[in-house]
Records
---
Amino acid sequence: MEQATRRSDIRQYVAAIAANLLSFIFGIFMGWTAMMLPDLLSSDTPLQGGPITKEDVSWLASIMCLSSIPAAPLFSCISEKFGRKPVGYMVGLFYLVTGLMVALSDTVEILYVSRVILGCATSGTFVFTPLYVSEIAEDRTRGPLGTILATMVNIGTLYAFVIGATLRYYTVAWLCVLPSIIFLLVLFWIPETPGHLLRQNRHQEAKQALQWLRGKRADIIPELETTKNIMKKMESSKAASFKDLVTSKGAFRAFYIILALATNQQLCGLTAVTSYTVLIFQESGSNLSPDTSTIVVGLMSLVGSVLASILCSHFRRKTLLLFGNVFLAVSLVALGFYFYFKHLGQDVSSIGWVPVTSLSVYVLVFNLSFSSLPLVITSEIFSPHLLGKALSINGPYTALLAFLVGKFFINLSSAVGTHGSFWIYAVFCVLGSIFIIVVLPETKDCPLQTTLDKLSGTKSKFSAEAERLTYEAVRSSKNSSV
């Protein structure tokens, strides 16, 4: 039994990591922004037209968020009609084109176009990856598998930080192309999700896909039958629509929960910190060089995401998110005071360690909490037939917030000072803490059907069976670890 469970876990992790190569590529281009914008601003710029302006910087850092908005519903529709993997192939090609445009261009106009395409790819990544992972995971592995996304993003970002600090601009660009090719090859090897295949009445293929994911010797019949029952229940009702997100009591509660989490996630200043990391360190006058400081921050991001995959299995979702908000606020307040004292003209050389320490704590804690848990929770509070609809709205909403934070960080800092910007972000962390305490339900180790029933205020016969299966799986997992 233990060996079968372990083999099933390995298959699920392999498939999840393969799908999350897209997250790795997304992280690379996020890191590229932080490392390459200072080069483009310098007199030694690789572009023909000379150094770019700060207005160019703000648009290059944020336009991808704007272009991702219309792409999300499109990818959601393609995913529902043709499957998860076709979306993966499209997104991989978009990343490949983006990398080639950066590697082959020498004008800022082409960079703008590449960032627009990158925004479409980003939107597809956050439609494909959470859907794919949530539909191949068992209830007991859904949380840890969900945290892989953040880990892969941070590995990609660190990869970009390291090569950006040590190699020339166009060499970095070509090294951003290679992972897209690898992903397109790997995607061919992993199966389509059993859930999508069942919805398409491709039952034999669904059985083969589930057997591949759970292992050749695994007894997949109980899980397959439970999934079929849920699918039949969904088929007996009308087809899902965007209207259901606001007319169904349970779906509406889940909908405003994920929008609130997205607001909390973005208005803590994430896009500003990730897009302008090197520029922030340049302005701070820290004891460490900007490149070195940025790599340290990248390492702390990776450590945080790795720890999140462990802690997610042992701590409640609410506990981790509340912990995240508190320490994000503390690090932002500390960073704000550093820039405030510097703004007053005081000598801050004796506390030159504050910027890198504060940002390291910020990214560490963010990755322990808000980097992946909102997506994990999203997959735990929506039924499969509404999840794609919810993601197709939540994605653009998150992107719009990220655009506003990234585009206007420089403007906001000019108006209220860099210190004021960080303090404003800290206020949103405090407000987020209140929401988590008062409104957010706990979903750890809770079967999907049970959560759906709680949100809608009902109880179904499938909920009790799901609770029993999950309890047995969790107990088996704990016994095998002793």
Note: The longest helix spans residues 384-438.
---
Amino acid sequence: MVPQDSGWSWMVLIGAALQLMLTLGISKSSGILFVAFQDRFDSSAATTSLLSTVQNLTYGVSAMFVMTVGVKLTTCRNLVFVGSLLNSAGFIITSRAVSINVLLFSYGVLIGLGYALTIGTSIIMVGLYFDKRRGLATTLAIAGGSVGLDTFQQVLGFTESSQCVTAACEFYIVGYLHDVTGNWVVPFHFLGSSVMLGGIIMFFLPKLKTE
């Protein structure tokens, strides 16, 4: 029996938020890492781009089996544990890599498998440990990913973080509205209104002058 809405549930939420913050933050910083890898190993753009391609392909294919078959064969906790070990091994090997071929295995395959085992299962675990505040807890966990996007890209040199902060706030509000109303109608109306408002604002903004 999973203890729902208890003190341990909030620890699970914190762990899931940190997990998503790390995985999504690093994953979405691939453009910055692309330049760093290219300079470090003096590799061509085509070869370096294979790193993200292999990682995304590995993640996409593996996640399909993890979320359909893996969750039935074992618990989400075991899957997250194994995925965290793969992520750790992948990052350690990547930090010590001496060639782009090693990165294809460590950064592409190992980390891709780690992401597949941790991202979806972390969100599922939050849903298992919460009942009354499931909507709020899930969106707080996902908002951790937005914090990761903001933090890691800032550290790696990316400065345009307003979109990440906005996304995190919207996820929080949507989860709160779901818990208050008990349905997804009002939250989706809120998101739709936000998109329309953003489009109107962007339409009336002055155009940038280009030389």
Note: The helical segments are 7-27, 30-41, 45-73, 76-95, 100-129, 134-155, 162-181, 185-204.
---
Amino acid sequence: MLSLRVLSVIGVLLLCGEMDAQITVTMRPPPRPITPMNAGGLGATRTGDANAQAIADKVKGQLQRVLGKTFTTYKVNSYRVQVVAGTNYYMKVYLEDTQNQKYVAHLRIFESLDGKVRLSGGMFPTNWNDPIDFSGYTSIQN
């Protein structure tokens, strides 16, 4: 931002005929504040939403094959996101099978940069109060 003194000097020079160029002053918005990122860290816990459910639905069949169960209820309760070379979704999912058995599972779902989604790990069963974090997942091979 030009100071008042610089503007005054330019004005005097223009009045004296010392400057014949036209001056344009452009005001720029202030820079956006930089928010710290924890690269590779887990984001805050979010309540399950339509986007998370859509991602989880893509691996429902894979989970059923791995566990040998068919789920009549499969609902994302909460989740956390980790940005890597793609995105890891750590999800707490409420499950009910065809025998009316109720479970809570933690799933690690990887979405690649090209949009492919796969179940990459999980904990089954877990307790409802278990926090969503990095540890304890069994890797699932495709």
Note: The helical segments are 4-15, 50-57, 60-67.
